[in-house]
Fold each of these.
Amino acid sequence: MDANHSISFFDNQFQKQVREQSFALNPFEEVALPYLTGSVLDLGCGLGNLVVEAARRGASVVAVDASPTAIARIQQVAAEEKLALRGVQADLKNYQIDGQFDSIVAIGLLMFFDRARALALLEEIQQHVKPGGRAVINVLIEGTTFLGMFQLGHYYLFGRDELEQCFAGWHVLALNYQAFSAPENTEKVFATLIAEKI
Ligand SMILES: C[S@@+](CC[C@H](N)C(=O)[O-])C[C@H]1O[C@@H](n2cnc3c(N)ncnc32)[C@H](O)[C@@H]1O
């Protein structure tokens, strides 16, 4: 297993979910799904529940994650169902987006980098969405006190309005904030933004 605590954390969780055949979409993925048409890139795709469903509905998808368990599962489903879905195992800390997409998704990813990398990757995402296409971004924001999944010194909690500010000049289709209780009396606070490139 790699030295990145966050990647190990999720890979262990995904192994358990594969054993239990637990592949339900999370609430953020449910909201994102209708926006994923045409060519789709999902960064930090996890087990691929969202991309598998988008591909089943006709999207052409590239799905990237560092978890070997997640990418193996995505490749297996893509082959079994003959989907236009390509799983790529890569560390997104050093990754360059190749091509232009109708939709780019990063749900629960950007907070796993330091501020400079999180903002640079967000800017790269924006540059690789086609005009008229969409970005679907979900991050943890300030107020989050559940930190167990982070590698020390390698995470970034966005300011409450920071995501919205980053998308100035885009047409914001949806923006919401949600808080969830986490273990040991902690809390996760999320911002989710869906925006169309003008
Ligand atoms: C909170 S999960 C979100 C997964 C999925 N998007 C979802 O909504 O269920 C975070 C994902 O980011 C991935 N991840 C974290 N750090 C990463 C890195 N440096 N490179 C690639 N993937 C990473 C994890 O493997 C995990 O799949």
Amino acid sequence: MADQNWRNQPRRMSEAIADKVALRIGEHAMTHDLTEVDVILHGGEPLLAGPEFIAYLVRAIRRQMDTGSRVNVSVQTNGMRLDDEFLKLFEKLGIRVGISFDGYAEAHDRHRLFRDGRGSHDQVAEAIQRLSAGRYHSLFGGLLCTIDVRNDPLRVYEALLAFDPPSVDFLLPHGNWSTLPPFRDAESTTTPYADWLIPIFDRWYGRAETEIRLFTEILRLLSGHGSRSESIGLSPALLAVVETDGSIEQSDILKSAYHGAAATSLHVLRDPFDAALRLPSLVARQIGVEALSPTCRACDVVAVCGGGLYAHRYDDESGFRNPSVYCADLYALIRHIHRVFAEDLIRMRGHR
Ligand code: SF4
């Protein structure tokens, strides 16, 4: 990613910072009378922090919830270290596990390699098997798949489905108008990412094989509901990131834009999470359509698309007030889903 701040971060959070993070989360839950808080442990690779530290942090957070708020903890891992010790701990603490997995062996091993160049597919598949089969299945949060349009979409989808995941997230690769995503040409009207996703939507729609977050959110938005994801829709940004040194940052997907893009001046030792809501960069993520470019505001699918993921709108010269670099793909995908959904509604009405 463009941001290299991770090089200056401690490899693991200290227990003193973990205690303060827990206190800040508890304080936030109490101030806003929250019934639930979602805590996501991610990295890098969060399992590198070790089982003792993960247990320490999660217990510290739950201890601060004397208001009775429920703490839903999940971990997003590459699966390489997901052994029995971790699984037993996650079962004990009720931590749900999401695994990054890009599909069949050739697809997954294009990008996810060991240092010696060997692919990690077989080991990750074993980890998913350990999680998805038998007693740990209830901990299985889902699979996160980054799209590479060179891979066969239906083969990828079927490779994910083989593990019976409760949910699947397809991620568009990081990119923006200054650093274009792979196979996306700034001038071209081609839609390689929509062309990749549409066959999966057509295969998925109407069957209850798994939840595909991107499609479910588009269907929710088409039905007039708000979005629950920052990838699509106009809902305000809902998460804050705490780095290992205790700095409070914005969503780290922003780190793909430029060095320091996610940084704020806030720190858990000094500031409550509410202080983030007064930062102009955060306000821009809370005001919906007002923050969008004129092109997006005039777009007929803006209520669904919302300009796509904030980081994908970035341009070195004009900042974030642009359509998504995936504009053509998002438009084609949303129009397709809208067409299928509308035809379905008309058919259902005819059967009444
Ligand atoms: S489809 Fe393009 S123009 Fe329309 S809202 Fe999305 S990014 Fe903006």
